Amino acid sequence: MPHVRRAEYPPVNSSYVLEYDEITRGGLDDSWQHGNDLYGVYHDLLGFLPEKYDPNLVNFRVTNNVITSQVASMVTSGMFGGEAQQNLPLLVQPASIGSLEPAYTCLAANSNFSAYGVGSSDPAWTSHLNAASDLYANLDTISGVPPTDSGFHMSFDHYFDNLSSRLCHAKPLPCNSSNPSLCVTQAMADEVFRLGQYEYSYLYRDAGARTLAYSAGSYGIWIAELAQNLRDAMHAIDSASTGDKTNSSIKYRHNIAHDGSISRILSILQIEEMVWPGMGSEVVFELYKRKLDGRYYIRVLWGGQVLRSSNPTLGVLDMLQVEILIAYFDGLVGRRAEKIPSLCSL
Length: 346
What we know:
The chain is of the alpha+beta class. It contains twelve helices and six strands. It has helices spanning 25-45, 66-80, 107-116, 123-131, 133-143, 150-153, 157-168, 186-206, 209-242, 259-268, 322-333, 340-343, and strands spanning 58-62, 252-256, 283-289, 296-302, 305-306, 320-321. The longest helix has 34 residues, at 209-242.
C-alpha cells in the first residue's frame, strides 16, 4: 500500500481543487527503506531474490493511480538500485478493468456495499457518525470544512488521512487559520483514529456475511490471479526439477496498491482482527516446498506476523497446505474467476 498523500483541508469559500496524487518526502523515503529491507531479507538473509534485477524472475505491478508508481520507483530503487539509472518496468492493467485497485465493475458488490457501508442509511453504519456529532463539529470549526461537505462526513476517512499524515511526519496537529489558538488536540485525533478503525472493521468484517460477499465480488479477479500464480509457481518448480521448460519463471511478484485493496484481501481471508491498513501495510504470501514430502505449503504474513483467520479451514496461516488455500479461493470466486460474472450480476 502507498504511504502518505499530500492532502490539506480545503480553503473556505475557494475554488481550489484538492489533488491526492503526490507522495510526501517522508513517504518516499520510507518506500525506499522498505525496498531495501525487503532485499535484506529475501536476498541477503534467505538468498531468494537475485542479486540484480532480472525481469524473468521478478516483477512489480501498480494500479492506474500515480501514487503507486511513485512508491514503486522508490521500492525498486531500494531493492535493486545499485546500478545507476536502472529502468525497471512496472506492470499495469487498463484503468477500466484493473483488478489490483480494483477498478473493474461489479454491480452486485457495489449495490451490497451501498446498502450497509459508507453513504448508506443503515442504522448500523450511521449510529457512530451520529454519536460523533460533537467531534465533527469541533473538527469542522477548526478546519473550516463545511458541515455539508459529504466527503468529510460520510465517514472519518478524510480526517483520518490528514491527521495521521501529519503525525507520521512529526508535524503538529492543525489549527484554525483565523484563530491559531484553536487547534485539534491529541485526544480529538485519537478519537478520529479509533472511529476510523471501527469503520474499517465494520465495513470489511463486522457487518456480517455481506462483507465477504462484497470483497469476493469486488476483489475476486485479483484473488483468482493469486491462486493461478501459485499454481504456476508450483508447476515451474516441478518442471525445473525434471528438466522441463515452463512459460513462467517469476518467483517474486510485488503488487503496490491501496488500503481498500488490502482491506478486501484481509476480508476475504477473514482475518480475526480487522484494522484500517496503515501507511506501508503489506500482506505477504510465501510459497514453500518441503523436502521431506515434496508438498507445497504457504505462509501468509500481515504486518510481518503470521495472519490468523477466523475461518476454521484456514486458521493460523503458517505452513498451511497450499491446496487448502487455493481450494478456498476457488470456492469463493471460481478457478480463473469463473464465478465473478454471476457474483457481480444484479
